[in-house]
Amino acid sequence: MMNQNRWLTITLLLMLLSAFSISFDTPITAQSDCQTTLSPWTTATSAPYNHIEGATAVANNKLYVIGGFKDSALNTSGRVDVYNPQNNVWETVANPRRALPVNLSHAQAAVDGNNIWLIGGFLGKNPGDPTDQVWRYDTVNDQWFAGTKLPAKRAGGGMALVGRELHYFGGTSFARNTSYTNHWYLNLDQLNQGWKTAANFPNARIHPAGAGVNGKLYAIGGQTRHDNNPVDLKLVHVYTPATNTWAQKASLPMSRSHFEPGTIVYNGRIIIVGGRANQSGEGNGQLKQVTEYNPTNNTWTELRQLPTKLIAPNATVINNKIIVTTGGTSWNTGQKKTYISTITCN
User: Fold this and answer.
1) For residue 307, what is the enclosing H or E element?
2) Whole-prediction pTM value?
3) CA gap 313, 305 in Å, rounded
4) Is the peptide bond before 313 cis (omega within 30 degrees of 0)?
5) For strand 143-146 and strand 134-138, is the pairing parallel, antiparallel, or unpaired?
6) pLDDT of res. 37
7) Which of 110, 210, 134 is nearest to 169 (CA)?
8) What was the pLDDT predicted at 284?
9) DSSP code per residue over 155-222
10) pLDDT category, 19, cuts 50, 70, 90?
11) What is the distance between the alpha carbons of residues 201 and 213, in angstroms, rounded to a whole number?
12) Quick one: pLDDT at residue 40?
């Protein structure tokens, strides 16, 4: 009888453990499985200055907008403007920041702690010369420092920070209708080693957006040629540093470029804001689309559109608020309005 009771007890315990095991193994809806939504757009304080094709960065929960074209004549600036969403104030109106030492467009930014890195770009008034310059901005001490130069002069390339490595790929140079496949990286913990060569970008193009997600580098969109009959592209590629290889991913819903400063990494996904859709070399094709890429299932989803069409807007997410500002209503018409939407994922 004791043996029978013992086996009965063991059987009951095994049944309970099995039940708990099933409970724990049941998939729980993860944040990556949720659906992103944007609330209706509201208007915030306008930017104090025009920045068309400038650079976007976030440090200390503030939005930094750097350089770009400042007028319809396509003169550039090195101006730094800082927006604080907590109090809806552009801090640089009352407290100007030290300008980038050069006037620049077509350079993008990546952030490492309190430091903002800018790489390449076109110097001065359009059409300016490409540069191999690299700059680091200390946001706390308001100081600019020259970094290790690129191996060649480039503008309109893609860039992103992946782990501790800055990656720069594609873009153009003095022959502005020629694009390049070069792909270089700089280890921020080993600056003395300089830029190193990685696997070539598989499809040479100008104006691709770069984004670092989960240890991988994503290259999105872009265009062939720059000044004469540019055609935007749907191409999307991902680079895996561990294997030094590129792979093609699901294409954009439409051909698209000029959204590099409006490229956001949020919740393990990539959100692109505005830009241009020019498929045959004619017209401008500014966009109000806001589109999300989910690397987990390799899909694109359209989100709530902007209130107006914008080319090369500066955009980011801070404290679950998506902030969109500056850029242009056309390629040479700047705008200063700031739009904000609450972003949720349910």
Assistant:
1) none
2) 0.89
3) 13
4) no
5) antiparallel
6) 98
7) 210
8) 60
9) BS-EEEEETTEEEEE--B-SSTT-B---EEEEETT-GGG--EE-SPPSS--BS-EEEEETTEEEEE--
10) very low
11) 17
12) 99
